[in-house]
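Students often ask why inverse folding is considered easier than folding. One informal answer: many sequences map to the same fold, so there is more than one right answer. In these notes we will look at a single instance of the problem. The structure comes first.
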């Protein structure tokens, strides 16, 4: 148990270090703002001290400082307290926005260097939560919780010093009387931390469920899965609600009990000090001063106990942000980026390549093939046979366990990954359409879009057949496309993707089920667009529709991560093997 306590304590420290790390470059403003907020507690103590002196002056007006001067000093200290608090909070607000901006930038930058494998096992909602709710938790900590904690801490220390200097005995017993409240805060820290973390987890799970629902809305409507989706969402919502109840139960328990434990010493001081003052054993000024000291002392103690769940919330948020920022990047999973850069010619060779996603189940097993520049290659086989995985290795999306891949005769480990990726085009079954104009979508994958004018875009549309779609759009290239291309048919989205690739003009093109699920009116246009794209580039085509690949220079039949057969369409039919059987099945089902 002690071991776990140590780990938790170290985790809390690391979490806070992450929070402060994003103050880099703004430490001066942060220190000044915190200093101003802390200075307010000093003015409060001076006000309390003069309040006691005022009471003494009212009791013995002839032996004390003039009353008007004490009143002026009290007002002066209170006004100074308001001013420095205001200036400190304004400065902290400025720092907070900068920190939140820095954290968001760091997280988004991290997204750009995380390996694809990370997103394969991380729900979308969880990633979004990191960039939204968790950053907001850190922002709330800097803007509200941190200054309150610092102010409360400095106030407590200042009051302790002031009380001990004023009357050591009374001050000592007031400090001792605060121990039960401090012990309560320490005792409930662990359950509050646990339920705060659970709340964060359930919140991320709910966001994931919601993201899945929104992304799959069309499928849900088509198959009438609204009831199933509603039940799934309700379950996540109820889990979050029950966790929120448990968290709030602890907070609701802490607040009144802490207030009770802090109010008892004040009541005792009123009774004891009032009795001594009436009997002449304590001056009225000392009695009033200690009443004010007690108020100033126990109020921040109560505030710290009230802030406990906010502190734990900030710790939980910073832990989650820290874990994401410490996730292995591409260079750690794929190896150090090579330095070789050159225009691609399109020659691809696999030498004894074996690959596994989890290090246990082999996806590709000792794969060997050599594709010359400008060749078109079709990949067929059952789902899970390794077709897509094979092509994912060309742009280095995943690491290989053994073997090597050569691009233009140079090991892929030597190539600069970005140099390869910038010269490769990919069109998958799930086309990404951004919210924006048709022009913006066609230029989305072009590094130097300023070099492509409307005349070039119009010519590309003519070659792929997208011009037939644009002819029915009154605004042409300025037509606004919805997020995901919901105002386009499946076939029209594929035409946009294919035209986008023609504009990008890659030397190596990968078509991963690009002709699947297209509507009949666009099928002929898509086939024409693919033929246009094949000219002058190496092309890999994965397709279940064998009509798409029958004219390829080579067809490779995959089976359990290995190439079972390879050759041209006519050769493979003549052999009467696995490929011929696939063709016969599609003919029987009228797919070819």
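Output (designed amino acids):
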């Amino acid at each position: 148990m002690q071991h776990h306590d140590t780990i938790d304590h170290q985790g809390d420290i690391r979490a806070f270090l992450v929070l402060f790390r994003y103050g880099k470059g703004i430490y001066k403003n942060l220190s000044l703002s915190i200093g101003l907020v802390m200075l307010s507690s000093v003015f409060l103590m001076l006000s309390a001290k003069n309040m006691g002196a005022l009471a003494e002056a009212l009791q013995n007006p002839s032996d004390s400082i003039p009353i008007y001067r004490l009143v002026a000093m009290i007002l002066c200290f209170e006004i100074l307290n308001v001013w420095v608090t205001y200036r400190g909070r304004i400065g902290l607000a400025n720092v907070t926005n900068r920190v939140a901006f820095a954290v968001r930038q760091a997280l988004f930058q991290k997204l750009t260097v995380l390996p694809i494998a990370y997103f394969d096992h991380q729900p979308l909602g969880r990633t979004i939560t990191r960039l939204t709710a968790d950053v907001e938790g850190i922002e709330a900590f800097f803007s509200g919780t941190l200054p309150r904690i610092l102010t409360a801490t400095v106030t407590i220390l200042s009051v302790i010093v002031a009380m001990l200097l004023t009357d050591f005995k009374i001050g000592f017993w007031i400090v001792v009387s605060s121990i039960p409240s401090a012990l309560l805060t320490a005792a409930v820290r662990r359950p509050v931390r646990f339920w705060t973390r659970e709340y964060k987890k359930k919140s991320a799970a709910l966001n994931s469920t919601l993201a899945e629902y929104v992304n799959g809305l069309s499928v849900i409507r088509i198959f009438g899965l609204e009831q199933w989706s509603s039940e799934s969402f309700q379950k996540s919502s109820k889990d979050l609600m029950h966790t929120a109840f448990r968290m709030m139960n602890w907070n609701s328990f802490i607040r009144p009990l802490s207030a009770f434990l802090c109010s008892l010493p004040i009541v005792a001081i009123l009774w004891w000090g009032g009795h001594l003052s009436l009997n002449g054993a304590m001056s009225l000024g000392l009695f009033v001063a200690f009443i004010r000291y007690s108020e100033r002392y126990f109020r921040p103690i109560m505030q710290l106990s009230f802030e406990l769940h906010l502190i734990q919330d900030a710790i939980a948020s910073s832990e989650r942000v820290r874990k994401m920022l410490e996730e292995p990047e591409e260079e750690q999973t794929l190896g150090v980026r090579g330095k070789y850069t050159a225009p691609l010619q399109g020659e691809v060779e696999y030498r004894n390549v074996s690959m596994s996603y989890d290090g246990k189940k082999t996806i590709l097993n000792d794969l060997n093939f050599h594709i010359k520049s400008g060749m078109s290659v079709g990949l067929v086989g059952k789902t899970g046979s390794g077709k897509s995985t094979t092509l994912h290795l060309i742009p280095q999306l995943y690491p290989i366990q053994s073997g090597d891949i050569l691009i233009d005769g140079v090991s892929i480990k030597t190539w600069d990954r970005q140099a390869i990726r910038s010269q490769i085009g990919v069109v998958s079954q799930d086309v990404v359409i951004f919210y924006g104009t048709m022009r913006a979508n066609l230029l989305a994958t072009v590094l130097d879009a300023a070099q492509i004018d409307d005349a070039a875009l119009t010519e590309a549309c003519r070659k792929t057949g997208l011009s037939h779609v644009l002819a029915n759009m009154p605004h042409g290239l300025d037509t606004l496309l919805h997020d995901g291309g919901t105002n386009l048919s499946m076939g029209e989205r594929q035409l946009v993707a294919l035209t986008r690739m023609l504009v990008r003009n890659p030397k190596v093109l990968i078509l991963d089920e690009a002709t699947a699920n297209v509507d009949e009116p666009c099928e002929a246009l898509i086939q024409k667009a693919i033929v246009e794209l094949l000219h002058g580039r190496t092309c890999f085509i994965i397709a279940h529709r064998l009509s798409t690949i029958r004219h390829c220079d080579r067809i490779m039949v995959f089976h359990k991560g290995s190439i079972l057969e390879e050759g041209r369409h006519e050769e493979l039919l003549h052999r009467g093997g696995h490929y011929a059987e696939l063709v016969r099945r599609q003919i029987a089902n009228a797919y070819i």
